[in-house]
Amino acid sequence: MRGSLRRGERRRAAIFLNLTEKRCFQCGGVKPLEEFTHDKRKISGAGTYCSDCDRERSKAYYRANRERILERAAAKRGPQPERHCSECGVELEGRKRVTCGTSKCREQRFRRLHPAEYAERERRKTERRRETRRLARERADTSLAARPR
Ligand SMILES: [Zn+2]
Ligand SMILES: [Zn+2]
To answer: In this structure, which topology does domain 7-67 adopt according to CATH?
Structure first.
C-alpha cells in the first residue's frame, strides 16, 4: 500500500520502533544514532550524515568556499578600528598591535611602562661605557710610558 503512512505517522512510527541505528546518506554506512550529527527537527534527533562524513563535508565546503566564508566573516565583524603606534601615533598596518615596531618607539614604550627597569638598564650601559673609556685611557697611558723619551 503505497503512501499509506503519512509524514507525521511515519515519524511516530520511528519513535515506536525505538530506532537506534541509521543509514548515512553520504557513505551509506549503518551506524548508531550517537554517531550522527544532531538535528532537532528530525524525530530521531540524528542528522542526515554521520559525524565522520559531516566533518569531511564541512572541510570540503570550506575548501571550496574559503574566500567567500572569510569575506562574510570580515563583513560581519565590520570595519576594524584604526590602530596607531602608542608612541609616535603612526597608523599601524598588518599584524602590528602596539607600536610601529621601530627600535625608537619600542624603547620609548619600555621606558614609559617600566621606568625602573629602564633606569637600571641605562645605568648599566653608562657604567659599561665608563669602564671601556677607562681601559682605553690606561692602554694609552702605558703606551705613552713605553715610548722612549
Ligand atoms: Zn557517513
Ligand atoms: Zn612608532
So the answer is: Wheat Germ Agglutinin (Isolectin 2); domain 1 (3.30.60)
